[in-house]
Write a structure and sequence with these properties.
three-stranded antiparallel beta sheet; globular; mainly beta; about 160 residues
Length: about 160
């Protein structure tokens, strides 16, 4: 289990089943020049987005240091699938994907005809929102579906 300290932004982990034995993920006692606002992990890697919207990664077992992967990311999700999904931090916010092990080669995962705004292959509420708020806010994925939440709270899903 991974978490971010509210005050310091440092990443912590706790072995499952977690009973409160949290330890800071900083075994070498190296002080980093960044703090995290988002963490996600798969079976081998933990991914962190810094407050500066930069993406870092390290081995899940702590055997590597944090390594810069790319910038301009505001939301990220990973799973047992071979792909990371992210939302860019600049407007207009876009959905991107990167094959693992991701080293920053992001691509648009679906062609424009399959984009959420087109309604093809995606399910969710009415596509157009006249009040604005259509920018993507977060992305999540499980072993079968990709989920996008817009800034106004609408959720779209499609099979992966």
């Amino acid at each position: 289990v991974w978490a971010i300290a509210r005050e310091s932004g440092l990443p912590y982990r706790c072995q499952k089943p977690c009973a409160g034995q949290w330890s800071v993920v900083n075994e070498s006692h190296k002080l980093y020049e960044f703090t995290f606002e988002h963490l996600d992990a798969d079976n081998t890697t933990v991914w962190g987005i810094s407050t500066e919207k930069r993406l870092f990664r390290r081995a899940l077992d702590g055997s590597t240091e944090w390594t810069f992967t790319s910038g301009e990311v505001s939301s990220l999700t990973t799973s047992g699938l071979p792909t990371l999904y992210a939302i860019t931090s600049t407007y207009p916010k876009d959905l991107l994907s990167c094959e693992k092990p991701c080293t920053g080669q992001w691509v648009v995962p679906y062609n424009s005809e399959d984009h959420v705004d087109s309604g093809q292959e995606w399910s969710g509420p009415d596509i157009k929102d006249e009040d604005g708020g259509d920018d993507y806010a977060t992305v999540d994925v499980d072993n079968t579906h990709l989920y996008l939440r817009t800034e106004n709270g609408r959720v779209f899903t499609r099979q992966v």
